[in-house]
Amino acid sequence: MQEIIRTESLTKRYGDYSVLQDISLNVYRGEIYGFLGLNGAGKTTTIRMLLGMIAPTSGEAHINGQRVLGAKPQLWQQVGYMVETPYAYPNFTVRENLRLIAKLRGLPEKQSTEAVMDRLQLARYADTKAKNLSLGNAQKLGLAKAMIHNPSVLILDEPTNALDPAGIVQIRELLRHLAKEEGVTVFISSHILEEMSKLASRIGIIHGGTLLQEISSQQFEQLRRKRLTVKVREKGELAIELLRQAGYATQLADEGRIEVTDESAIRQPERIAKLLVGADLPLAELTVNEEGLESYFLQRVSQ
Ligand SMILES: Nc1ncnc2c1ncn2[C@@H]1O[C@H](COP(=O)(O)OP(=O)(O)OP(=O)(O)O)[C@@H](O)[C@H]1O
After folding, report:
1. Best residue for ligand 1 mutational test, from 11, 17, 19 (most atoms within 8 Å of Cβ)
2. pLDDT tens digits, residue range 17-66?
């Protein structure tokens, strides 16, 4: 496997305040590496160092085998990035903004602009001034700028932040396609656990400036605690008794809800429904809940 991104003990301090400690990670060609952490965990700081925008206090970052600090300008022809809220010239249209970037990058202006607008489904906003775009479309314009030169490495800081659900699915599919079909390496940060487990092939979890854990997305899915919540219209005690007798690990939660944590119940909730309805205990609610990022961290950090 070809190593594309490598950090060695990246550390950043501002005065006495330590933002990042000893971050060492590797990302391989065609991988989508999800960098997952709560707000303030240190994601943006890491990404800024990956891009050479700020210098580490100690440690190093490498892309394509080159040390980022002091890298030759050619390195940046292979890298596309979007960090925090993307900037665009407000009085230029989407097309004008992109043509400007194409020109600065020495690309065929018309062809690369139209191609990237198509890719991100931005063509119908081509003549809209950047200042009149919705937040989601402004974000897409930022992504278009990051991708216009067809880079082989994409580094994206919370790229789906302002997008609506349809936009999130679209970007997810585009990134998956780029990684799988074109071998593009994607490093993407987010604080949304759900999104990461759907998109990334590997996930690095950062908390308080430390890389806590690196796992595959499949492992991550298995580690997340899931539970089935049931509520019956009445006779909650009886329902609990019945479920326990049937061998399910069951406990009473808020507002008369019953939580079932067995794998088999989570995989086949219809069995629970059948059991209760069959005993004349009609259901008011039946849901599978997945643990959120905060509680996953709390559990992980307190171990
Ligand atoms: N220039 C700076 N001077 C001092 N502290 C800073 C500086 N830049 C960032 N920090 C602090 O470093 C910590 C990590 O910030 P960072 O922006 O990297 O987090 P993040 O994980 O990207 O969070 P968010 O999702 O909120 O952007 C925060 O506590 C932040 O206040």
Report:
1. 19
2. 999 999 999 999 999 999 999 888 999 999 999 999 999 999 999 999 99
Cβ proximity of 258 and 230 under 8 Å: yes
Contacts of 191 (CB under 8 A, 6+ apart): 36, 37, 38, 39, 41, 43, 158, 293
- Is the interface score ipTM higher than 0.90? yes
Rounded mean pLDDT, 269-276: 90
The label of the residue with tokens 């931005």 reads 122
User: Torsion angle of alpha carbons 211, 213, 214, 219, nearest 10°?
Assistant: -160
Q: What is the pLDDT of residues 115-150, one digit of tens each?
A: 999 999 999 999 999 999 988 899 999 999 999 999
Ligand 1 centre distance from Cα of residue 162 (Å): 19
**How far is residue 188's CA from residue 198's CA, in Å, rounded to a whole number?**
13
pLDDT score of 221 more than 80? no
Nearest CA to ligand 1 atom 9: 45
Q: How confident is the model at residue 303 (pLDDT cuts 50, 70, 90)?
A: low
Residue given tokens 């999104």 in the structure block: 195
Q: Which protein residues are within 6 Å of ligand 1, measured from CB?
A: 14, 17, 19, 37, 39-45, 191
- The atom number, within ligand 1, closest to the CA of 84 reads 27
Strand (E) or helix (H) holding 79: strand 79-82
CA of 44 to the centre of ligand 1 (A): 7
